[in-house]
Amino acid sequence: MAETKVNQGAPQVEVTPSGSEALLLKYKNIIIGAVIALLVIVAGYFFWKNTANQSFAKASTAMAKAQEYYSQAVMSDDAALFEKALNGDSINAGFLAIASDYSGKAANLANLYAGICYSRLGNNEEAAKYLDKFSGVDDEMVTPAVKGALANAKASLGQLDEAVSLLTKAAAEADNSALSPMFLIQAGDILESQGKKAEALKLYEQIKEKYQDWTRYNSIDNYIERAKQ
């Protein structure tokens, strides 16, 4: 039987000033990929900080199989494995049950995993629901990246104003050249699609002023000129 592949959602599109779609999709894979990479850091941080916490230790044991399914799903883009990570199997709990049955940091991490799984399955409504439950961690990369993923889900649902708000907050929280310019450009793309060129221009000019070491810095003038038209 042919392997089932993950629904990638709408095709990526190039931004045009008159576009009316949630054009954030062209950056979606970058943000989701960043969150997936950072999950490894988050999980390791939580486990290291909570090894003496009996409740968390029990939750982490329950989570082990779900994380295994998740890792396999990321490597193979197999929808069935993302479903198993979410819902578990006949023996092991999935992220949804862990988020429901446990509390504190274990449930918080399970909510994050569940949100990313739903995003990879193309279910943006559930992705937004669970990513919104993630309360963040004390890390300048993880929490902003999750806000970016949540913004993608919100934009895909047509909640463009909320997506812009999340992206600008994520850019401010990250305040680095790895994430902030990407978030600000996404927010600017959405604003332009709404006809709010002056607001988009402010975000592009912020990139030019603050993030000279951004890898695509030379392209920011094109965004600025476009917003001025």
Provide a quick synopsis of the model.
The chain is an all-alpha fold. Helix content is 68%, strand content 0%.
Describe it.
With 229 residues, this protein is an all-alpha fold. Helix content is 68%, strand content 0%. The longest helix is centred in the first third of the chain and has 23 residues.
Task: Give the tags.
229 residues, mainly alpha, 11 helices, elongated, disordered N terminus
SSE inventory with pairings:
Blueprint: H1 28-49, H2 54-76, H3 79-87, H4 95-101, H5 104-120, H6 124-133, H7 142-156, H8 160-174, H9 180-193, H10 197-210, H11 220-228
Helix pairs in contact: 1-5, 1-7, 2-3, 2-5, 3-5, 4-5, 5-6, 5-7, 6-7, 7-8, 8-9, 9-10, 10-11
Strand % is under 5%
What is the string of helix and strand elements? HHHHHHHHHHH
Oligomer: single chain
Share of residues in helices? 55-70%
Q: How is the biggest beta sheet arranged?
A: none
Q: Report the structural category.
A: mainly alpha
Distance between the termini: 53 Å
